[in-house]
Write a structure and sequence with these properties.
Two copies of one chain form a homodimer.
Chain A lengths: L16 H9 L3 H14 L2 H12 L2 E2 H8 L3 H13 L3 E6 L2 E6 L3 H13 L2
Antiparallel strand pairs in A: 1-3, 2-3
Helix pairs in contact in A: 4-5
Chain A binds a DNA duplex (30 and 30 nucleotides) through helix 5.
Amino acid sequence: MAIHDVECCDDFEVHSDVVQAVRSHMPDDDDLYDLAELFKVFGDSTRIRILYVLFESELCVCDIAQLLNMTQSAISHQLKILKQSRLIKSRREGKSVFYSLADDHVYRIINQGFEHIKE
Amino acid sequence: MAIHDVECCDDFEVHSDVVQAVRSHMPDDDDLYDLAELFKVFGDSTRIRILYVLFESELCVCDIAQLLNMTQSAISHQLKILKQSRLIKSRREGKSVFYSLADDHVYRIINQGFEHIKE
DNA sequence: TATTCATATGAATATCTGTTCATATGTTCA
DNA sequence: TGAACATATGAACAGATATTCATATGAATA
């Protein structure tokens, strides 16, 4: 049976070769959920900007707040989300807490995204 | 002046070397906004799952709806968003409309994401 | 042309999310 | 210890968003 030599959208479709193939190659629902959650973290311009300023150097909360012209509280809330997603890590130095990128996955993911929007 | 040999969080901080360096390396706000918008599209498990089923083969709307066990309307709404972001393309064949991935950026972006969650 | 099938779409709704505000926690230093 | 500074956090509110429902559009066929 050729790839699309099937009636589309009747109930038999569920048993076609293509649909069966798709089913067998799908990752676990949990993984797909986690993946969406990860991209959701990148899907906010405040968090993207935070990640970008951390590309250059580790920074403390108030530095980031000043750079992005936002309140300390707003930044702190977003840093928490970024940290929970293991995209950034923190280090306390006296009263300040310095944040930095957790690893270079952040780099790669953002760069791939950039390539897409630059078409 | 050493990297962190500056008083953190007073107003002079804005003029420090590091902060100046960060400022000069930031992309345009428009690009950062677009980037966040792109990741926002990936940040929904329905859309992620749609992209995944399209990895295997082009599919029509009702096929996708059946595979994901969702209504045709819900899928159609999400396909519109994916298409507006140029992540998928469509082709009409009679009554059906077949959707497929626009290019391999989708692949790469999702794979980078997967690497992160699989640590 | 009328009917049926496949898809698209607008409005409504419920849920989610980011920021603000007030305040708590934690650290340094006098 | 107490004051000042840096950060974290909970509650509340406003804005965004995914799904549902009803219906419109578009295409094939009898």
